[in-house]
# Entry
Amino acid sequence: MIAEPMKTAKWLNPAVADLRPYEPGRPIEEVARQYGLDPASVCKLASNENPLGTSPKARRRLLQVLDDTYRYPDGGAYYLRRKLAGLLDAAPEQLIFGNGSNEILEFVGHCFLGPGRSLVASAHAFVIYKLIGQMFGADVIEVPTRGLGHDLTAMRNAVRSDTAVVFVCNPNNPTGTLLREDEVRLFMDDLPDDVLVVFDEAYYELCLDQMPDTLRYVRAGRSCLVLRTFSKAYGLAGLRIGYGVGPTEIVAALEKPRQPFNTNRLAQEAAMAALDDEEFVRATRDVIRKGRDDLERACRAMGLEFERTYTNFMLIRVGDGAAVTERLTRRGVIVRPMAGYGLPEYIRVSFGRPDENEKLIQALRQVLGR
Ligand SMILES: Cc1ncc(COP(=O)(O)O)c(C=O)c1O
# Structure
């Protein structure tokens, strides 16, 4: 085939043309191929996945429903919706499901962002907020952090008359920092009610301390949306299912750009079973608490600065984050460089099983010569 200049380039939406796509953690198979490693020896500590794998209850349910995949799923996720509504003390109409909670972030863009509008987010928060702002042609107001955590006062003060959405990530990816009940209350008390607050709580169930109760703002009818996911605590990242909880009017708007079968049958069934697997979530929290203890101890011993984390990943200051990531990856330990988050001196590591954490610590010692 002859390569031709793309004749349609002139039609490319400028907001999309300038977009730098999100760079996810590298897959094990790709790294194994590149460095000639045995895939079984590579550990991926780069995407904040569940160190214990998939919820066993979800796995059992998946095997039971495999034969039903020839039918379209229930686009409204009737049973999952009712089950979750009961657990959260919400009305079924206050829930929306997404192909991962990421997809719901995109619905927020479709519904609320566009040229002439702005969004507010913390400077070192989940980078998708910024990408979505750019994709929809909105101004992205990045607010400097206090330490490495959200500065909610500064974020409130950054809100302009054209600000449609504020994103609050808690615990925050990639810094692992946690906002407390009082801080969130002060912020909400002071925020104009025509601004949509998106509380991104992807790590809610894996939080190692007290989470603020943000659903209270949904119940109070405030303009807010609480996002959670089955990817992390329940180990269903590969199935892509997450949800949002918000006042009925906001959820009804978000439903409009949703494709009819955005969450698949297997994901819905697995999610329902996973909700009964509290034991798995508890075991996961235990493993990540141990991971945090072990990594913190190792960092202190190596004289490395780190940020106290409240969930299943941690930021470590290593100097040249990109170079250290490359050298760890060669040794079969995949971590995440943080330049894309404005933190080029850091790497972000997800806590794995104890043997994986040990491999990371050994590799760090070799790479940094400590
Ligand atoms: C803060 C945050 N929000 C949202 C997501 C997206 O999760 P998912 O689309 O798998 O539900 C992630 C994934 O890493 C995340 O860290």
In short: The longest helix spans residues 278-302. DSSP finds 14 helices and 13 strands in the chain. The chain has two domains: 23-53+279-368, 66-274.
